[in-house]
């Protein structure tokens, strides 16, 4: 089935899918905590909101690192199939570039939690 | 001096934001010029410059590395600023609370705790003492409005069912102007107000004056005015503390004579404009909620009611 | 259906050309006859060909743009001096609302969609996009509905609540007239038309590319349109849902947004801006894609950083969904939440920077000629970079508190939209006009148009930055003297007149120099590299070229001649019907020859009646709406019955190069399967918005009011009963599939007719459960949200019922068999989705309150 051929496209955008999940979870969790009046709550002794945001960001960064690392290895392993070489190089490169973009966005979105009050 | 300008700040938060604005204009302007120069070089530059610019490396440096560095610095700077804006200013005193309620198309200001059974209620102006934090607690009685006093701070939306907060502070005595900035219907354009910053002593004196109920008429024309007010049905919408009228649909008129404007910043406030407003509010501010009384009142009655209202200092 | 293994060989750059000379003498005349446009009174109503629909679409969008420009001139005239009374406040409010609404919904999105419909087939060397009647239907519904919408202005009935339509101002209490309904119903269905176009574009780009045009070789405009269309699929459902909620509130008093009954006005803002911010990029990306086509042609060199630009387009498509609260900085949301959106706003500016530098790099590495399109590209860079920089400024929360809802924003957004969309569109007009009209627009007039617009736009909008910061709010019909605003406003008004002159000259140029010439020019006036400059007919390229690089016309110098001679793939028609080649999504290997429909009346009547249906609803003529609705649905069913799922008309089609392809496939290889899946993504996004509505209102109300006193959560037996019915229905659908595989199509039809009542019963049971538990839609937002779910499920009940009856009818008519089964496949996917959605809906009503411990 040629639909299998769709998976390089999903690989190419996987980093941004991780970003989207990260963004929705971070915003959703923080909004929920604040609406429920849990600004002062803690998780394992840490303030709740920073703990959630930083935890999710760490998870997200690990995920994009895995995706990007896999693309990097395959890009430099010379295993890209002979006939579709140009095409698979391209999607692997895109996968890698996209993870860098996603990582940057996640870091920029997480930095505020170190500076601003959780719900103020 | 412009009374309603973000670039003419009159308080610490306004000044911080204005300074940020100038930083942004300077930096943005420099980047704009730089990019345009690069476009020019790309077209008419020498071989060497164009080869340098015409590479993938130029894209990575100019389109990725440069923005990432600049924007990271800017992000950290503005987050620090946002944090500072949220913190209480020095001074020690707890902030003065003022409740502001948006109405189509005017403002109701309440000073909770200033009277034994609540607080004084005024309209279309905020009086504040200088040098003290003032916490505006804003909401709306009908649609969404937004309160903006650019010289002191940015906007805060007034949303029905929700109370939002905006801390302001003025450094020097003076008058500033504010306006509604969320489209709220027919007369959104004519929904303004004044902010009067006074020395703490003047402010206290004003507050004492406002605490008093409306003065009893001491001249026949004023007595007639009070009578016309009742007969024409004005009390069906307006309150005048110390009288039998206490409706809350329109502005509280207890001390209307002392206010800086009429019709939410539309007119100056004196006997003539009062009469004009009562007679023709639909001509002066079409679509507002107050009917014109030109047909209901004759000239004598109009003059009387305007005189009485003017006397309510 | 696995494509033949020979495909790889036939696509190699050193393989012989797929078809030999000489070609059979009747091949070309036959192709021309089949693709001929309808003549006489049938034109253009029955036309479906993308060349014509694309140009009509663009022209109509241009008409709406000119109308909206006239409205803006009225506003500028009113604001020329303080205290002006040229327009009264009511007229002004209608005019600015209509201006914004038309520019966004009737001009910007349709214009770029039209550009895609017009250009993509030629650029991808497809004969047409896979669903031409859908494009034509979307176009006519849009054109008729848009004109109806604009007419409301002449009766003083135009919407007056701003293009964002925030409640409670737009709720029944504060806007009792039908003005708001004109927005909700009139624009609401035009959003549906945009989605129809997006489905077409996604499937077209992924499945209709020339053989060998892998994703890595796809023109950047196609990348941009792909991202554009996918963004529409995820963004527009939010505004459709927001529209549905507001109309339900207005029509039936369901208090979603009314705080005195548990509603929350901010719900509308979240939903609206979840659409509204991506919308800006939805408009900008195709324009950026066009620039990435024009620049290389103008400077005669390959795009530098192709991969970076493609990545930037994709990244923008994602990141722009993380910006919606950007428009809600002043609503009192905690500053940390705002900062997330600030961070995302910064992130989205990086891909834009990449594109700007890629264009500069490309210009630097080539030899720029100052053709008119290039002038507009320079104008675009100037205006758009300035608008982008103010965009970074308003992403910063404290600055935005000052700039928000002032003329600074008016300046910013016009810089971004005029710079980022109108100038590229004009560049595109001057660049691509020869491909439609056979010759170039006037160079002399073009330069005048450019300079008038460039100066006019800058001098109109730059002063607004200043007037905004010194205290002028947006959406004011007048302003007082003495605030220092006079000079800036006068300057803006005077310069607006200069821009208007530019628009006028452009119209003169078009009237004098633009004539559609089907059959097309063989000319490539700018020596561009991409396939839309191949010799074109209504059928696009005579034969479908085999592509070996990103710049085929530069790298395969004889390509144009070979294509015209018919030496590439599918040089004629195999079935005697309109056909196009379907290729695989990533590698673009030929998979099958799809038969596509030709001219017909059904889609036109359906579009007319769809527009009529919504406009009659707006003016509350329910009986007329009933008639229009019935005719529209009947026309669509007739169109489907006669024009789709034709089955294998011939066994195999020889397209040359040793490739013998099927002309009919079903399942995941077929384009119609893809279209259905894309449609379900739209549907699923709407349902996600419904879930968000529940979660948001719960948070806003707190546990004690969710459900509020007096409303309970139904007994658990009810949802279990509904679930059992849904499961039974799914089982019957499985059985139907099995019967069809065994060739027992009529029995399959019978089983489908059995499955339908189970589904409807499950929905009915839940409605009963909710009602008997005391839940009422008008009393509290909890009830309103619950019934919004019922409404959405009911709508799917109706759709499934229509589809099931249609399927059964096809089965009994002998039009379905184990091979010819697309109708069955599509109905089944939709139905299974509806079952899953119904189960998820049960969770919202019954599980959510229980899980929260509030039920």
Automatic annotation (TrEMBL), chain A:
Name of the protein this chain belongs to: Uncharacterized protein
Species of origin: Falsiroseomonas tokyonensis
UniProt entry keywords in alphabetical sequence: Membrane, Transmembrane, Transmembrane helix
Transmembrane segments: 47-69, 90-108
Taxonomy, superkingdom: Bacteria
TrEMBL record, chain B:
Transmembrane regions listed in the UniProt entry: 20-46, 58-79
Source species, domain of life: Bacteria
Subcellular location per the Swiss-Prot or TrEMBL entry: Membrane
Species, as recorded: Falsiroseomonas tokyonensis
All copies of domain Cytochrome c, residue ranges: 220-313
CDD domains: CuRO_CcO_Caa3_II (cd04213)
Pfam families named in the record: COX2, Cytochrom_C
Domain Cytochrome oxidase subunit II copper A binding positions: 93-209
The family this protein is said to belong to: Belongs to the cytochrome c oxidase subunit 2 family.
Keyword field: Electron transport, Heme, Iron, Membrane, Metal-binding, Transmembrane, Transmembrane helix, Transport
Protein's name according to its UniProt entry: C-type cytochrome
TrEMBL record, chain C:
Domain of life, per lineage: Bacteria
Residues spanning the membrane: 55-75, 102-125, 137-158, 182-206, 218-244, 280-299, 306-326, 338-363, 375-397, 409-433, 445-467, 487-508, 592-615, 621-641, 673-696, 716-735, 747-771, 791-809, 830-848
Domain Cytochrome oxidase subunit I profile, residue spans: 35-533
Membrane topology designation: Multi-pass membrane protein
Residues covered by region (Disordered): 1-24
Subcellular location: Cell membrane
InterPro entries: Cyt_c_oxase-like_su1_dom, Cyt_C_Oxase_1, Cyt_c_Oxase_su1_BS
Heme found in the keyword field: yes
Keyword Repressor among record annotations: no
UniProt keywords, alphabetically: Cell membrane, Copper, Electron transport, Heme, Iron, Membrane, Metal-binding, Respiratory chain, Transmembrane, Transmembrane helix, Transport
PROSITE patterns given in the database record: COX1, COX1_CUB
Family statement: Belongs to the heme-copper respiratory oxidase family.
Family annotation (PANTHER family): CYTOCHROME BO(3) UBIQUINOL OXIDASE SUBUNIT 1 (PTHR10422:SF35), CYTOCHROME C OXIDASE SUBUNIT 1 (PTHR10422)
Name this polypeptide is given: Cbb3-type cytochrome c oxidase subunit I
Source species of the chain: Falsiroseomonas tokyonensis
Lineage: Bacteria, Pseudomonadati, Pseudomonadota, Alphaproteobacteria, Acetobacterales
């Amino acid at each position: 089935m040629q639909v299998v051929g769709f998976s390089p496209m999903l690989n190419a955008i996987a980093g941004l899918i991780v970003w989207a999940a990260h963004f929705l979870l971070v915003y959703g969790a923080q909004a929920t905590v604040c609406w429920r009046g849990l600004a002062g709550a803690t998780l394992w002794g840490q303030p709740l909101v920073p703990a959630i945001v930083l935890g999710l960001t760490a998870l997200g960064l690990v995920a994009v690192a895995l995706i990007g690392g896999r693309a990097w290895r395959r890009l430099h392993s010379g295993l890209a199939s002979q006939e579709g070489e140009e095409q698979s190089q391209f999607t692997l490169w895109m996968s890698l570039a996209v993870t860098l973009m996603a990582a940057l966005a996640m870091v920029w979105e997480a930095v505020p939690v170190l500076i601003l009050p959780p719900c103020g | 001096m412009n009374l309603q300008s973000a670039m003419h700040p009159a308080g610490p938060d306004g000044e911080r934001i204005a300074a940020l604005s100038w930083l942004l204009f300077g930096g943005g302007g420099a980047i704009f010029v730089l990019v345009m120069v690069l476009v020019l070089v790309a077209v008419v530059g020498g071989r060497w410059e164009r080869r340098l610019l015409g590479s993938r490396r130029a894209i990575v440096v100019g389109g990725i590395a440069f923005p990432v560095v600049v924007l990271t610095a800017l992000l950290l700077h503005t987050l620090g600023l946002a944090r500072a804006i949220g913190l209480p200013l020095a001074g020690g005193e707890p902030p003065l609370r003022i409740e502001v309620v948006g109405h189509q198309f005017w403002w109701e200001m309440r000073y909770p705790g200033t009277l034994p059974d609540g607080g004084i209620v005024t309209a279309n102006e905020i009086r504040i003492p200088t040098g003290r934090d003032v916490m505006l607690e804003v909401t709306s009685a009908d649609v969404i409005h937004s309160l903006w006093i650019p010289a002191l701070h940015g906007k805060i939306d007034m949303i029905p069912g929700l109370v939002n907060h905006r801390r302001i502070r003025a450094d020097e005595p003076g008058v500033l102007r504010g306006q509604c900035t969320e489209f709220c219907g027919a007369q959104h354009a004519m929904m303004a107000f004044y902010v009067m910053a006074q020395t703490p002593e003047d402010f206290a004196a004003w507050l004492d004056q406002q605490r008093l109920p409306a003065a009893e008429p001491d001249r026949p024309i004023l007595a007639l005015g009070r009578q016309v007010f009742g007969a024409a049905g004005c009390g069906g919408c307006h309150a005048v503390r110390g009288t039998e009228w206490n409706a809350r649909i329109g502005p509280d008129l207890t001390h209307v004579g002392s206010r800086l404007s009429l019709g939410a910043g539309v007119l100056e406030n004196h006997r003539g404009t009062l009469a004009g407003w009562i007679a023709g509010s639909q001509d002066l501010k079409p679509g507002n909620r107050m009917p014109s009384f030109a047909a209901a009142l004759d000239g004598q009655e109009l003059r009387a009611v305007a005189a009485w209202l003017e006397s309510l200092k | 259906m696995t494509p033949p293994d020979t495909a790889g060989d036939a696509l190699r750059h050193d393989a012989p050309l797929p078809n030999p000379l000489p070609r059979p003498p009747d091949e070309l005349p036959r192709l021309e006859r089949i693709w001929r446009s309808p003549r006489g009174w049938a034109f253009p109503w029955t036309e479906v060909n993308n060349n014509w629909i694309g140009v009509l679409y663009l022209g109509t969008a241009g008409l709406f743009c000119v109308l909206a420009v006239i409205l803006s001139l009225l506003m500028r005239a009113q604001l020329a001096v303080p205290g002006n009374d040229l327009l009264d406040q009511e007229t002004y409010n209608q005019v600015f609302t209509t201006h914004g609404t038309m520019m966004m919904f009737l001009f910007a999105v349709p214009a770029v969609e039209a550009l895609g419909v017009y250009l993509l087939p030629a650029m991808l060397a497809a004969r047409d996009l896979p669903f031409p009647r859908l494009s034509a239907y979307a176009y006519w519904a849009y054109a008729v509905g848009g004109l109806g919408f604009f007419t409301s202005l002449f009766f003083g009935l135009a919407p007056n609540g701003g293009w964002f339509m925030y409640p409670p101002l737009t709720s029944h209490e504060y806007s009792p007239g039908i003005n708001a309904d004109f927005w909700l119903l009139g624009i609401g269905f035009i959003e549906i038309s945009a989605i129809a176009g997006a489905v077409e574009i996604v499937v077209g780009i992924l499945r209709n590319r020339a053989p060998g045009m892998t994703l890595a070789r796809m023109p950047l405009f196609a990348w941009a349109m792909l991202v554009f269309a996918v963004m529409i699929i995820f963004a527009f459902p939010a505004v459709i849902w927001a529209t549905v909620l507001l109309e339900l509130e207005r029509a039936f008093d369901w208090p979603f947004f009314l705080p005195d009954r548990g509603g929350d006005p901010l719900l509308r803002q979240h939903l609206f801006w979840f659409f509204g911010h991506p919308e800006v990029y939805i408009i900008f990306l195709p324009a950026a894609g066009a620039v990435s086509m024009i620049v290389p042609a103008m400077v005669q060199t390959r795009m530098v950083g192709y991969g970076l630009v493609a990545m930037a387009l994709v990244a923008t498509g994602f990141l722009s969904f993380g910006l919606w609260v950007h428009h809600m900085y002043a609503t009192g949301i905690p500053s940390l939440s705002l900062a997330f959106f600030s961070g995302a706003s910064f992130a989205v500016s990086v891909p834009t920077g990449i594109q700007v530098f890629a264009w500069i790099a490309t210009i630097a590495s080539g030899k720029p000629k100052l053709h008119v399109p290039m002038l507009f590209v320079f104008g675009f860079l100037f205006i758009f970079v300035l608008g982008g920089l103010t965009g970074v400024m308003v992403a910063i929360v404290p600055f935005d508190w000052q700039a928000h809802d002032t003329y600074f924003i008016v300046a910013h957004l016009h810089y971004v939209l005029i710079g980022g969309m109108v100038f590229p569109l004009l560049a595109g007009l001057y660049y691509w006009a020869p491909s439609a009209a056979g010759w170039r627009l006037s160079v002399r007039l073009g330069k005048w148009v450019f300079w008038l617009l460039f100066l006019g736009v800058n001098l109109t909008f730059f002063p607004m930055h200043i007037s905004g910061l010194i205290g002028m709010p947006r959406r004011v019909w007048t302003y007082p003297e003495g605030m220092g605003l006079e000079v800036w406003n006068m300057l803006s008004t005077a310069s607006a007149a200069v821009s208007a002159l530019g628009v006028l000259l452009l119209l003169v140029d078009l009237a004098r120099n633009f004539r559609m010439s089907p059959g097309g020019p063989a000319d490539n006036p700018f020596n561009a590299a991409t396939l839309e400059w191949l010799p074109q007919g209504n059928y696009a390229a005579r034969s479908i070229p085999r592509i070996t690089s990103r710049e085929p016309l530069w790298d395969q110098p004889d390509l144009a001649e070979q294509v015209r001679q018919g030496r590439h793939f599918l040089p004629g028609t195999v079935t005697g019907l309109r056909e196009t080649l379907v290729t695989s999504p990533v590698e673009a290997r030929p998979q099958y020859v799809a038969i596509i429909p030709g001219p017909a009346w059904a889609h036109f009547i359906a579009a007319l009646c769809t527009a009529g249906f919504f406009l009659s609803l707006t003016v509350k003529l329910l009986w007329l709406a009933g008639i229009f609705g019935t005719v529209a649905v009947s026309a669509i069913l007739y169109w489907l019955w006669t024009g789709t799922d034709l089955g294998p008309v011939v066994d195999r089609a020889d397209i040359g190069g040793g490739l013998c392809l099927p002309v009919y496939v079903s399942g995941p290889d077929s384009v119609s399967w893809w279209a259905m899946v894309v449609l379900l993504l739209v549907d699923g996004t709407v349902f996600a918005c419904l879930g968000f509505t529940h979660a948001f209102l719960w948070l806003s109300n707190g546990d004690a009011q969710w459900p509020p006193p007096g409303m309970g959560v139904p007994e658990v037996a009810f949802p279990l009963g509904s679930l059992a019915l849904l499961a039974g229905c799914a089982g019957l659908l499985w059985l139907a599939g099995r019967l069809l595989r065994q060739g027992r199509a009529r029995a399959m039809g019978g089983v489908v007719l059995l499955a339908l009542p189970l589904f409807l019963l499950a929905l009915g049971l839940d409605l009963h459960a909710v009602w008997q538990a005391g839940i009422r839609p008008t009393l509290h937002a909890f009830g309103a949200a619950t019934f919004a779910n019922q409404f959405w499920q009911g709508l799917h009940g109706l759709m499934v019922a229509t589809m099931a009856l249609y399927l059964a009818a096809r089965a009994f008519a002998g039009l379905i068999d184990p091979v010819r089964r697309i109708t069955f496949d599509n109905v089944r996917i939709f139905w299974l989705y509806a079952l899953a959605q119904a189960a998820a809906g049960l969770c919202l009503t019954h599980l959510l309150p229980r899980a929260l411990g509030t039920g």
